[in-house]
């Protein structure tokens, strides 16, 4: 279960960011923001590296004391970042991957929604509920 | 084949509608084409998102163009682009010898002057798709003998 | 060792450390000058061999670091250069002592030392000592560098000897155990004879030798030694030293692979030429790795055998291996918490290498690791340094965001609560440096277009911190600037509460230091561009307004060409959007006048959730001088499109372009230029200013009209109520209230089109009288008298016709007094009332509107051909006064005259008197109708000249007007009760029949009896028995020829009772024939017939001259043939005498 989920546009500004607990949101802003460096590095390395790097899931971006940050970049250069608690060791790679898949599916739906203007903040409630489903429950 | 026809009919009606509403207001011909192109652009953005959901990451520009020619075109028009040419400096020409949206119009030079209307949406589709993949471009189409058409893509190089 | 040296790089391992210190008091700048010169000797090739020695200089080195010298030899101080000033010989011994004392500090590791004395002269200075150099002063020591070089040479000699010493130390002898400071206690009491121990000693020593070789410039040997050390130490699991050996290996390999150094641009190394040449030789493909038996090493270290040389090249690690080994080394270091500094430095070195290898991912992992290395209790200074360095390193690998993050942490650290004197300045500086990492530039122009860059939440936090830091720094101007920037660029992202808070704090700050538009420059050269508040309020439209109508300049026609507004070409393409810039360059097609108050209207929007007070809002213009009069306004919360009018006065002539506007909001002055606001629509910003024109104020003698003017052009209007035919004078006073002299004045009037038929001019005036006052100076006034006279046609034509035919009176007819004449009753009033109420002529007011236009000019504007117009509207309600309900004619006694019978109806509620010129007054009571008769002359119609273009109808109208005016000159009306008078007009009342009757026949008949002209009333006398000559003359005034005609004379007597006696054969005889024959008469010719009569009896006789029925008579209207009736009185001839 994630503590923070973020969707970042190709121009590197946030389209959607939600974290639990919500009062310390700024901290997560910082975390996700700095993780973009790593994302960019990984993406630009694709051309030079081997073929198996071509999948959309980027894996663990970097660990901090309390959190682990995972990344995923779509072909349309939209980045998804999920931050999970370090102490949550039960989360396996596959689970993270499936979380990203769900996010991507939901995001595609948002994109195809005629009321959504690409580049705007995501306000779709359907997307919100998908994200809530994968976040840690607030206590 | 029913689903193909559905899209074609819808497409034709959209064009008629746009032109008819233009007559009531004061729009020039250029604006109608531009409007259709914008429609296609937005649709293209969403389509690409859906189609590339499960594909692997594109390596480079050429990879992107190949995707457009094969998978994208097939998904929308049920056939591939017949020929792709490039000068490797950002200009690509996609040749479709039997463009689905033109086959019902004529098979020669008749109604040639109306062809641009019917290609505007498709150009927008391509431009929207490319834009969402991070490629800024200008897409134009040329028709000399229907139903063959050339779609010309000029990639805006980022300095 | 507690202080990490972040600047260390891998290649520093091959340098020797020399400390340069002052002894006693040395002025700082002097010291550093010398230090700089000394430091320039950082690379030296040894004379006796091809090797290079690298030297590192420090002016401050903690002695405890020296204790790690055995671990890594580059850490120990091997040379000391002391600098001192000595003024006199007396001080010398003391100085010398101190020098020795300082040497003791590093004594254990020092190879050599030198003392440089400045300022001492005399015999002590003449001493030639190798270890002391005397210079008179800092500037005159030209051989300083050479001395240093010598010093370095001597160090090298010592180094080399030590190296050889250790190298040749074979395994048989007792090898001492080299230790690091914290290890010493661990090895007390250990068995020194065990193989384990011995191997440990060997391994450590081998590593040490490797270090020495590296320092001595023998790269390949160093590599070999390191490899061996690694083998040895691995077998004994001596992790710390194993790590050091690995690190040594890495350092040597780095030096080999990256001759340019890994320190980046800061300390670029000159790649040593000799080494490069060497390395070139060694790269031969196909060579195999071969580890050399250390026993084969000679004292010189270089084996002449080329095959082994090839092998040696492979001892060097590959670039990937370097990193692997570093990782390994660091992991070993990590096991020892006291080796934190070493570990950290190793990480830093590895990162630098990775940066060069462009492997950012791995570098970031190293750095990540480095962050968590615990160095024990760090001072705040050290923490700051650490974070700053981390930030720099992240920057080096391209992780700008992380770099910005750590810089921010460093900034926060500068002002941590535990610091007694927070370094706000440093904090501020560091914060500024983080800006690029967050895509935040302090130029608001970057934010005006397109989508927002960067993370708004983060940026806002950063800006708040900048504001706080600059405030604490004591620079309120900066705080204001940053806070304005926050408000301007992040407005969309602030919540309502935040907006209130930000604006409140902004007002707080600006109360001490108002914000302005200047560029703020920091002492270090950083510039902050100004931040105009373009969103407070948001301006959507800018429209230049035309002057009010009465002040607009008009151009005299003929010079109109240049003022046409040019349409901008409309360029359209489906892809490229229409460029809005064209709009702004559009020239406006009205002009402003110098000296007049001109307005520009802005539509603004207030985006804030509270009332926005804008003070001092004015225009920014370029071009001609424009004095902008500032306005202050308060806009309600979140209100849309509020119109604001800014006014100003153009002071010079020319072209004015409105570039923008300036405001003062929350104490911050902003100059907003329109070109920087892409969302603003404007209908053109450039306007011409014409030279000043005079300004007139119009006032009238009559009261102002409450009516709404017919069009907005009319500046004022007057209303009158007149009776039809009345004249009213209006005095118009023009005051020159401007500053220019009035030079020209013209007046014209225009009737606003009405369906009423107007008879005659309504308005007339004498302009000459007014113009005699020109030129009119400012403050003076002139007056003009205008006469208003209304004459409207209140009758309906169709009512007249039937009555005339009812009349049944023939034209050739009867005198008025004839009893046969019917006296017609006055027109029944019911006739008028039966008409539908809309046409009720009695109570119907007719309205007439006219506009008088005063064109005036003067001053500069007059020279350029401009004028102003003042319009005065005149609204007249016309009450009908008298109606001529019926008109008929009666023939008068004379053929040249006619009686006009007018039924006059008084439609007013007052009694009036109507008076025709010749007749007496006719008194009419209200709503009374009476008949009056006036005698008028018949007149020629043809005298009214016909213009060829006129249509038949127009000609008719003109004719009628001409006739009417002739007749009218005889009529006038008086309203005695109201003291008003006017004229009654018969224009429009005369219909065709009447006109026919009025028409003077073009055939003029003159009858002369006895030579005397005969006409209706004239009675000619003649004598009975005397022949009476008769002449009938026809003058043809028509255009066609007339004739031939035959006339018959008939005599009769009128008994005045309707009976005429024609039986007068025995009373009257004709002498000759009674028939005249007139031949054709051409136009303008005349023809005369003569005859004679003889009266036999006395009495009154009438002669009628009749026409014989001729065909010609039918062509011409009968009116032409009206012949006067001749009245002859035959008198008794006087009795002759004697008869």
Automatic annotation (TrEMBL), chain A:
Gene3D superfamilies: 3.30.450.70
InterPro entries linked: Longin-like_dom_sf (IPR011012), Sedlin (IPR006722), TRAPPC2L (IPR044760)
Domain of life: Eukaryota
GO process annotations (BP): endoplasmic reticulum to Golgi vesicle-mediated transport
Protein name in the entry: Trafficking protein particle complex subunit 2-like protein
Record flagged with keyword Iron: no
One annotated Gene Ontology cellular component of this protein: Golgi apparatus
Family, as annotated: Belongs to the TRAPP small subunits family. Sedlin subfamily.
Main location, first listed in the record: cytoplasm
Coiled-coil region list: none
Keyword terms, alphabetized: Cytoplasm, Endoplasmic reticulum, ER-Golgi transport, Golgi apparatus, Transport
Cell location: Cytoplasm, Perinuclear region; Endoplasmic reticulum; Golgi apparatus
Pfam family, one: Sedlin_N
From TrEMBL, chain B:
Keyword list, A-Z: Endoplasmic reticulum, Golgi apparatus, Neurogenesis
Entry GO CC: cis-Golgi network; endoplasmic reticulum; trans-Golgi network; TRAPP complex
Intracellular or extracellular location(s): Endoplasmic reticulum; Golgi apparatus, cis-Golgi network
An annotated GO BP: endoplasmic reticulum to Golgi vesicle-mediated transport
Segments forming a coiled coil: none
CDD domains in the record: TRAPPC6A_Trs33
PANTHER family attached to this UniProt entry: TRAFFICKING PROTEIN PARTICLE COMPLEX SUBUNIT 6B
Biological function: Component of a transport protein particle (TRAPP) complex that may function in specific stages of inter-organelle traffic. Specifically involved in the early development of neural circuitry, likely by controlling the frequency and amplitude of intracellular calcium transients implicated in the regulation of neuron differentiation and survival.
Family as reported in the entry's similarity comment: Belongs to the TRAPP small subunits family. BET3 subfamily.
Protein name according to UniProt: Trafficking protein particle complex subunit 6B
Native source organism of the sequence: Denticeps clupeoides (denticle herring)
TrEMBL record, chain C:
Key word Nucleotide-binding present: no
GO cellular component terms, A-Z: trans-Golgi network
TM segment ranges: none
Localization, UniProt: Golgi apparatus
Domain called Trs120/TRAPPC9 first Ig-like: residue spans: 542-667
Boundaries of every Trs120/TRAPPC9 N-terminal domain copy: 186-259
Signal peptide: none
Domain of life of the native organism: Eukaryota
UniProt cross-references to Pfam families, sorted A to Z: Ig_TRAPPC9-Trs120_1st, Ig_TRAPPC9-Trs120_4th, TPR_TRAPPC9-Trs120, TRAPPC9-Trs120
Keywords: Golgi apparatus
Trs120/TRAPPC9 fourth Ig-like domain: residues covered: 1020-1105
Keyword Glycoprotein tagged: no
Stretches assigned to the Trs120/TRAPPC9 TPR region domain: 361-508
Similarity remark: Belongs to the NIBP family.
Protein name: Trafficking protein particle complex subunit 9
Gene from which the chain derives: TRAPPC9
């Amino acid at each position: 279960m994630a503590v923070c989920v973020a969707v970042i546009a190709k121009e590197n500004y946030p389209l959607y960011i939600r974290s639990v607990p919500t009062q310390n949101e700024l901290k997560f802003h910082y975390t996700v923001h700095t993780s973009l460096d790593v994302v960019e590095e990984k993406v630009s390395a694709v051309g030079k590296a081997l073929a198996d790097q071509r999948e959309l899931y980027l894996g663990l971006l970097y660990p901090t004391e309390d959190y682990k940050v995972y990344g995923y970049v779509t072909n349309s250069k939209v980045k998804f970042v999920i931050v999970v608690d370090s102490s949550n060791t039960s989360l396996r790679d596959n689970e993270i991957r499936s979380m990203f898949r769900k996010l991507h599916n939901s995001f595609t739906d948002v994109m195809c929604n005629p009321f959504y203007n690409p580049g705007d903040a995501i306000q779709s409630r359907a997307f919100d509920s998908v994200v809530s489903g994968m976040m840690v429950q607030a206590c | 084949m029913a689903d193909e026809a559905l899209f074609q009919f819808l497409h034709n009606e959209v064009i008629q509608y746009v032109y008819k509403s233009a007559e009531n207001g004061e729009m020039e011909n250029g604006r109608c084409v531009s409007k259709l192109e914008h429609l296609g652009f937005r649709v293209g953005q969403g389509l690409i998102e859906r189609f590339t959901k499960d594909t692997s990451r594109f390596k480079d520009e050429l990879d992107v163009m190949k995707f457009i020619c094969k998978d994208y075109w097939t998904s929308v028009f049920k056939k591939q682009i017949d020929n792709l040419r490039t000068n490797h400096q950002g200009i690509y020409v996609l040749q479709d010898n039997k463009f689905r949206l033109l086959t019902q119009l004529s098979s020669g030079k008749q109604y040639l002057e109306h062809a641009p209307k019917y290609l505007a949406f498709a150009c927008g589709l391509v431009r929207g798709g490319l834009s969402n993949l991070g490629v800024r471009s200008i897409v134009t189409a040329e028709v000399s003998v229907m139903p063959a058409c050339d779609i010309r893509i000029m990639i805006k190089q980022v300095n | 060792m507690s202080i990490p040296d972040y600047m260390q790089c891998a290649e520093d391992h091959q340098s020797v450390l020399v400390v340069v210190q002052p002894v006693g008091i040395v002025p700082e700048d002097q010291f550093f000058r010398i230090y700089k010169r000394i430091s320039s000797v950082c690379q030296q090739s040894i004379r006796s061999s091809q090797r290079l020695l690298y030297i590192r200089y420090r002016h401050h080195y903690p002695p405890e670091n020296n204790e790690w010298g055995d671990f890594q030899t580059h850490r120990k101080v091997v040379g000391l250069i002391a600098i001192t000033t000595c003024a006199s010989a007396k001080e010398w011994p003391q100085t010398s002592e101190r020098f020795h004392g300082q040497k003791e500090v590093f004594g254990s590791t020092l190879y050599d030392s030198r003392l440089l004395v400045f300022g001492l002269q005399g015999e002590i200075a003449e001493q030639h000592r190798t270890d002391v150099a005397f210079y008179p002063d800092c500037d005159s020591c030209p051989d300083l560098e050479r001395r240093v070089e010598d010093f370095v040479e001597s160090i090298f000699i010592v180094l080399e000897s030590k190296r050889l010493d250790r190298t040749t130390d074979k395994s048989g002898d007792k090898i001492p155990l080299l230790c690091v400071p914290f290890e010493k206690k661990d090895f007390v009491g250990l068995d020194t004879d065990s193989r384990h121990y011995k191997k440990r000693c060997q391994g450590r020593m081998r590593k040490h030798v490797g270090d020495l070789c590296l320092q001595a410039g023998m790269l390949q040997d160093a590599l070999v030694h390191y490899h061996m050390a690694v083998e040895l130490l691995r077998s004994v699991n001596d992790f710390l030293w194993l790590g050091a050996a690995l690190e040594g290996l890495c350092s040597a390999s780095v030096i080999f692979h990256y001759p340019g150094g890994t320190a980046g641009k800061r300390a670029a190394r000159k790649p040593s030429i000799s080494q490069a040449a060497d390395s070139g030789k060694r790269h031969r493909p196909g060579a195999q790795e071969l580890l050399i038996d250390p026993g084969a090493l000679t004292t010189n270290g270089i084996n002449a055998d080329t095959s082994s040389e090839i092998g040696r090249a492979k001892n060097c690690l590959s670039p990937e291996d370097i990193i692997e080994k570093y990782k390994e080394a660091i992991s070993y270091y990590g096991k020892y918490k006291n080796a934190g500094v070493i570990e950290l430095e190793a990480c830093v070195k590895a990162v630098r290498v990775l940066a060069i290898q462009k492997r950012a991912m791995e570098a970031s992992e190293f750095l990540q690791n480095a962050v968590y290395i615990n160095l024990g209790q760090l001072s705040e200074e050290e923490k700051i340094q650490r974070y700053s360095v981390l930030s720099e390193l992240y920057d080096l690998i391209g992780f700008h965001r992380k770099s910005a993050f750590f810089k921010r942490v460093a900034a926060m650290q500068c002002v941590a609560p535990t610091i007694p004197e927070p370094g706000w300045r440093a904090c501020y500086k560091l914060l500024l440096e983080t800006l690029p990492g967050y895509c935040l530039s302090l130029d608001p122009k970057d934010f005006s277009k397109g989508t927002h860059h960067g993370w708004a939440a983060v940026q806002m936090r950063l800006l708040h911190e900048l504001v706080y830091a600059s405030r604490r720094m004591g620079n309120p101007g900066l705080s204001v600037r940053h806070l304005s920037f926050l408000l301007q660029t992040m407005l969309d992202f602030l919540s309502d509460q935040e907006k209130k808070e930000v604006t409140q704090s902004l007002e707080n700050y600006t109360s001490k230091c108002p914000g302005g538009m200047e560029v703020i420059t920091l002492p270090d050269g950083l510039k902050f561009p100004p931040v105009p508040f373009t969103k407070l309020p948001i301006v959507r439209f800018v429209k230049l307004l035309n002057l009010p109508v009465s002040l607009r300049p008009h151009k005299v026609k003929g010079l109109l060409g240049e003022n046409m507004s040019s349409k901008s070409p409309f360029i359209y393409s489906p892809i490229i959007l229409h460029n809005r810039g064209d709009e702004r360059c559009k020239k406006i097609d009205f002009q402003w006048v110098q000296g007049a108050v001109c307005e520009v209207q802005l539509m603004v929007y207030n985006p804030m959730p509270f009332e926005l007070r804008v003070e001092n809002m004015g225009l920014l213009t370029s071009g001609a001088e424009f004095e902008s009069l500032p306005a202050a306004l308060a806009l309600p919360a979140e209100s849309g499109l509020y119109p604001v009018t800014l006014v100003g006065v153009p002071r010079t002539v020319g072209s004015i372009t409105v570039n923008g506007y300036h405001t003062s909001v929350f104490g911050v002055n902003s100059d907003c230029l329109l070109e920087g606001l892409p969302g603003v629509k404007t209908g053109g910003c450039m306007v011409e200013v014409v030279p000043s024109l005079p300004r007139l104020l119009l006032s009238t003698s009559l009261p102002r009209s409450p009516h709404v003017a017919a069009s907005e052009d009319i500046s004022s209007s007057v209303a009158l109520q007149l009776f039809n035919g009345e004249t009213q004078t209006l005095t118009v006073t023009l005051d020159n209230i401007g500053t220019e002299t009035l030079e020209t004045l013209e007046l014209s009037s225009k009737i606003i089109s009405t369906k009423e038929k107007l008879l005659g001019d309504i308005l007339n005036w004498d302009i000459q009288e007014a113009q005699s006052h020109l030129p009119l100076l400012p403050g003076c006034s002139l007056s003009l008298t205008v006469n208003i006279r209304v004459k409207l046609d209140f009758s309906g034509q169709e009512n007249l016709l039937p009555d005339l035919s009812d009349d049944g009176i023939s034209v050739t007819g009867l005198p008025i007094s004839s009893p046969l004449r019917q006296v017609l009753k006055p027109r029944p009033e019911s006739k008028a009332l039966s008409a539908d109420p809309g046409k009720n002529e009695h109570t119907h007011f007719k309205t007439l509107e006219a506009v008088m236009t005063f064109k005036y000019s003067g001053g500069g504007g007059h020279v350029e051909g401009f004028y102003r117009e003042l319009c005065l509207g005149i609204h007249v309600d016309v009450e009908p006064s008298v109606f001529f309900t019926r008109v008929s004619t009666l023939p008068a006694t004379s053929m040249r005259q006619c009686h006009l019978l007018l039924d006059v109806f008084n439609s007013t509620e007052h009694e009036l008197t109507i008076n025709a010129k010749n007749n007496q007054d006719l008194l009419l009571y209200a709503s009374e109708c009476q008949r009056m008769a006036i005698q008028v002359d018949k007149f020629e119609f043809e005298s009214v000249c016909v213009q060829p273009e006129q249509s038949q109808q127009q000609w008719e109208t003109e004719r009628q007007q001409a006739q009417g005016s002739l007749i009218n000159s005889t009529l006038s009306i008086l309203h005695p009760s109201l003291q008003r008078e006017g004229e009654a007009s018969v224009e429009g009342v005369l219909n065709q029949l009447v006109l026919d009757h009025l028409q003077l026949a073009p055939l003029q008949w003159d009858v002369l009896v006895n030579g005397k002209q005969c006409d209706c009333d004239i009675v000619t006398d003649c004598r009975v028995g005397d022949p009476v000559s008769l002449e009938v003359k026809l003058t043809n005034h028509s255009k066609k020829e007339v004739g031939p005609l035959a006339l018959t004379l008939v005599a009769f007597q009128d008994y005045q009772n309707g009976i005429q006696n024609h039986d007068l054969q025995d009373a009257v005889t004709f002498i000759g024939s009674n028939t005249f024959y007139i031949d054709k008469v051409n136009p303008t010719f005349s023809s005369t017939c003569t005859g004679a009569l003889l009266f036999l009896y006395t009495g009154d006789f009438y002669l009628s001259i009749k026409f014989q029925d001729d065909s010609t008579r039918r062509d011409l209207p009968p009116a032409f043939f009206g012949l006067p009736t001749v009245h002859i009185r035959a008198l008794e001839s006087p009795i002759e005498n004697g008869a």
